[in-house]
Design a protein that fits this description.
By secondary structure, the protein is of the alpha+beta class. It has one domain. The longest helix has 17 residues. It is globular, with a radius of gyration of 14 Å.
Amino acid sequence: MFVLESRPWHRVAHLHVVDHEGDQWRNYLRFRDLLRRSPQARARYEAVKLRLAEQSPVDRRAYTSGKTEIVTSLIREAL
């Protein structure tokens, strides 16, 4: 993963590099497609993200780590 910040804590872009057609590639697409088609999945993901942002407003690592469970769960459900 590559991150571009215009100033500290102000991300303007990030890039994930994965093997084309690999497991992570497929998981990213499954997750994207699920969020596009399911209002319920979007709502669940949004609720977790909002809670984490409130709990850890300046701790990016805690925020990102906290999303792991919901993302994993949603991807499993999309299989």
